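Loading example: each entry is read as two labelled lines plus one structure line.
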Amino acid sequence: MNLTTQELAHLKSKIKREPTNTELQIVAAEWSEHCSYKSSKKHLKMLPMNGPLVISEKGFDSGVLDVGDGYVVTVHIESHNHPSAVEPYGGAATGVGGVIRDILSTGTRPIAILDGLRFGNIEKDPQARWLFKNAVVGIADYGNCLGVPTIGGEVEFDDSYTNYALVDVAAIGFGKKDRLIKNHAKKDDVVVLLGGSTGRDGIGGSQFASDLLESEDRSAIQIPDPFIEKLIIEAILEARDHKLIKAMKDLGGGGLSCAISEIADSLSIGIELDVNSVHTREQDMNIDEIMISESQERMLIITDKTKLKKLEKICKKFRIKCSVIGKVTSNQIMLVKKGARIFAKLPTSVVVNAPLLDRLSTTPKYLQKIQNEKKFKPTKDLSIILLKMLSSPNLADKNWVYGQFDHEVGIRTVVKPGHDASVLRLDNGKFLAVKIDGNPKQCYLNPRDGAIGCFEEACRNVVCTGARPIGMVDHLQFGNPEDPEIFWTFLESLKGLTDFAKYFKIPCVGGKVSFYNETSKGPIKPSPLIGVLGLIEKKPLQPRIISKNDLVLLIGNTKNELGGSEYFEYIYNFVGGRCPIVDFKTSKMNMNAVLELIEKNLIKVAHDCSKGGIAIAISELCMQNKIGCYIGMEKIPAEKLSEDRSLFSESHSRYLLVIKRKNLKKIQSFLERKVITYAIIGKFVGDQILFQKNSRPIIKLSVDMARQTWMKSLGELVLHG
Amino acid sequence: MKINVKVGIIVFPGSNCDRDMFHVLTDVFNLDAQFFWHEKNLPSGIDAVVLPGGFSYGDRLRAGIIAAHSPIIKDVKKLANKGIPILGVCNGFQILVESGLLPGALLKNNSLSFICKWINLIVENNITPFTNKLKLHQKIPIPVANGEGRYYADDSTLKKLKKNNQIVFRYSTVVNGSLFRIAGICNEDANVVGMMPHPERATESVINPTDSKPSSLIFESLLSCIGA
């Protein structure tokens, strides 16, 4: 991987000479798509990034939100797709490690991990199964060892990820506002590299991630060591408490090259560094390897000379290495030496400012036809269809995954994985709800409305716990941006997210763009992933046990929106149709109504209606509570639809509320006052999942059988094929 | 005012439930808890010792074995011999076993994977410093979170455990293939208790989905045996 001809010319014009080999390596790492965002940077500015709770300061590697009483929550999201597709265990594990260090670098303690995982068809493809299984274990082994709970996430399978993997990891941090690292430095401060040694693993990792995955370049993949990461976390937090850190940055993509140039540029300083001082894993590493190695578990710290002794003492306590590798200068130059010999001397502003690109964008041809629907033969027995859907890898319960994650450590997890959003308690008596959502099947049919749908779904999940959304992070994953059709899908998704964020005043506090996600069969489907954080001032709506005769109230309208639905894709193997579209005004009305009802303490359970539609959402409540239901389908507020369509439509802005009969009148008068579309569609009773239409049975399925299938099918599939 | 019961929480490199245990001991039960780094000494005035969960030394070689050779373990042994209550939770239990303070071994779960879930314990011995407030055969809803939590001992050890009433907790159903569904044991003098499940994760109702009272009794037992 090298610079393009134009980029090389640009570099020469900036430095007015031929670059040295080391300089070329440094610049190539920093100007990779992965580090420079050269295709996306111009466009990302459209997202709203400020809000009343957002604290933004120079050099923060994660989003910071003020949650009151002197506390902050931090959040960041990253992916590790290319490495995970080659070596799923190490790729996924180091993905966790990297995002955790971003949280740490702001001076906050990591308190939770969420992961979004996407693979090919695990029912048919043993390779997909192998990738899935090992990525899950990689995340488990890393997060569990750190003692950071993995509290939620999502898993999806789709043919567009055949022989590939999307591994997205979001991390949450928590800390005191006055202990945030206020990145600053002055001349003659010392630059310290702390943690793991620098080796030959992960050489050129960021360029590897910025190209099509054609060869299994194993040397580009990093090796995980969660034990060292755990020691680094404790050492750094101790150093933070003693005010020994002036500025800090994680070593991620591009290794030392990027960390040094980016921290220097953001603080308007220069850094002079001697690679002889870098502690290495192997003896004969050359200067370029040291500069671009992406060995894990390393942090860069700038501290005052007088505080170095104390910092070294803390590192000694935890037996982690800490090397003084350089010093701060005032000339805004990145100077790389080996002993007395100079190998690179570059203005930091040149290194960090890759020439940005204007990528072409055109509407993809495939979109013209894909909205058309086939006529399906009406399904005879919808009970069998429901059971089949409950066993599908996308809809089956994910306990095989989250059962391997320590989701309790840290004793903050109030709402555990397996529910709508996970909820953490904070030290100021408030609660934080978090959820990540993606939906590439819908985004493929309609990149704009699909992306908005992911955003709304994550909001709905958070709202179901009683939380008001306060911030979002996005991870935009697409194929090759040099293809104008792919670039168009990226722009459409981004515009959609921007519109929704602005309408709902939810600031984007962090994100990432990942291009070049392609398999041998072509690009992945557009895969934006949205994480939403919500704050609960008083108390969360914790899942309560549903009892006999509790009523089911459905908020929202069910439309003929089955494009990208599990029903079309899993049952009929049909890709196409109308993707669900969020109506912003209705969305806001429904969201606020649900929140108010929860705050008034009138709701027992709130559950989002999404993948698999009403049929799946209601079945989930029945299976979790081991109780049957009776639903009158004629009561569902809907367009004129066939039974199967109203059961499995994935229209947005819908919520299932479980309420006690005695609260019915209050709730009804509230919803009518607010002009919300809703209906009481049935009640919980018996031991069968029963859907009827004008007394004619449409679905009748034993809860017990449904539960067995739903709970066990994913684990069985992974273990026995 | 803290209750004047001094509990030492031992911290090894890689311990990760030390802060959770500290929170429960101090904020929930109002005890005077203090951290001790593995290279330090334990003062003689200490009333009880807790070895918390985590991944000491990253579980390298075998869970708990490297930590069992830490300098502080000598002091733990001294206190154990004096009859001071000592509780090892999860990795703490593994360390107690590896240091010889408790018999048997903890092997990889029979699923070969990490298991994190809420289960029920059954109290089998309610005369230890950590169970005296519990009823015999009382159920405790509590989470497990481990990869190497399957208790194993040879036949003669198991016989001895049964005969001496050293089995403190059993799982109500099969969780990980533990011998005789053993979840926790004690030494012959019953002052050293090791358990795989995490009582510190179950004593507060906000994070306990069923009932936090039984787990609280584990800590209240300690309080009643030294605090009173």
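The longest helix of chain A spans residues 126-146.
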